[in-house]
């Protein structure tokens, strides 16, 4: 099923649910039963075939056809057994008991009674900024279920008790009463089919191929048909949280989670990994996170995080509605910044929280030891390069000055580099990197100056027009107390963004369509840039050799764009595809890149002949 058909089926399920919820649920149950019927039918067919063949063989009436039937029936029976016996691993985290956290378990029991939910079999704490409840099949498509709740300690650090309890009530709401049991059964069935779909994907046997063909047809349709049920279940769980704790508390919890989650992702983790510059050994994040999450976010960051959240729309990529839709369903109004939690909810978890935090810190350090070592080495190289450039600052051209400013910002995003960008503009009046850097480092209240630099960037650098238009629109759509609504400016920049978007698509088509060796040249990386790319390639164990060339784009003559050719022995095409897409995101190249592996097109011989010498060989 392609994406368009999947979206169409999702929309059809949403309409069916809105028109007649009971009929929609019956159709979902019938489609789920089809999957069970397939498993049972295959099992009966396999047993019947074995029932007929085995006595024939025992009486000496052997035929080659019977041998094939025996093998096929045995394989089919094994496939059915695998379908019925899908085991799920326990959640990662630390399991806790009522003796360790009596206040938490008492609160969970009160919620359980009010929502008429089943008992929890296991409760865990982990290091995620999240809380989740899972009702996983005990054995597979058939059999009972195990209820598991996981509470992220960072979430308990960020929220007060009422808001954390609202989150837990939402999670328990998924298992509420009769409707909850039906939705949970559908959810468990989706998990089982998903796991089965993954397990048969790598099997090339004839029975597995036939099974995979059915799963390729059935699972996407099952996921699309049940999408509306899963989306409505999220809204219903929100309503239960509002009924138990109050709509205002539930809405405030959602907004605070959105903003503090953005702060964790954009600020905290970046700061924590920058500590590798001075610390050769990894440092656990959770103890420091505890004190920082108790503080209110910086006002400007909070406003921007909320603004970005309000721009998102609910999509078929996630059954969870976006913040705007959830808060409007709870309160009838738009989300606003809440009064921040004054005290964390960690007291609910009892006196062993410091021990759990220390344990999570140790686990994090163990899991991230190699990545931390690489980060320490990389920041060391960045510092060395920055120090070398600072020693010859007076002789720099504009590009080297911009490079120095960028390196200093990698070491410290708040580094005072505005003077460097202005110096670069004195040496090259319309240097795109300097204009972009100035826009990024200006304070929030310097919006007029920011728009002036964006206008200059639009006029001077066609390859940067999409970024200029997108940034200008973000600025104009942000409410400023000293600026009114600029309708004319919004109209102009939206039109510019449309034009720039079309140009970017044409440039991407140039880069990603053959012939691969037309308009190529040797790479233009500096020794420092090449060293960074080589260090990143060395971390990819599957890469035997790599060639790198510049692709000269007709759409953007000044843009640095690259083709990366890889020799990837011992991998199948799916693994090669995933590695190439990952490298496109991770390689520290100063422009867009397309990664291709040596195969049918381009061949290894073509790469050797036309891509110059390798930049990396293992």
Task: Note down, in words, how this protein is organized.
- The protein has helices spanning 3-19, 21-58, 64-84, 102-115, 153-158, 161-173, 177-201, 206-225, 227-245, 247-274, 286-293, 299-311, 323-331, 353-367, 369-391, 398-411, 418-427, 432-441, 447-460, 465-476, 487-512, 527-538, 573-586, 604-610; strands at residues 94-96, 122-126, 131-137, 145-152, 520-522, 545-551, 562-567, 593-597, 616-617.
- The chain contains 24 helices and 9 strands.
- The longest helix is centred in the first third of the chain and has 38 residues, at 21-58.
- The chain is of the alpha+beta class.
Key features of this structure:
single chain; 618 residues; alpha+beta; 5-stranded mixed beta sheet; 4-stranded mixed beta sheet; 24 helices; globular
Helix and strand composition category: alpha+beta
Mind describing the biggest β-sheet? 5 strands, mixed
Rg, Å, rounded: 29 Å
The counted number of beta strands is 9
Beginning-to-end CA distance, first to last residue? 40 Å
Give the helix level as a range of percent: 55-70%
Task: State the shape.
Answer: globular
What is the mean pLDDT?
88
The percent range for strand residues is 5-15%
Outline the low-pLDDT stretches.
Answer: none
Query: How many H/I helical runs?
Result: 24
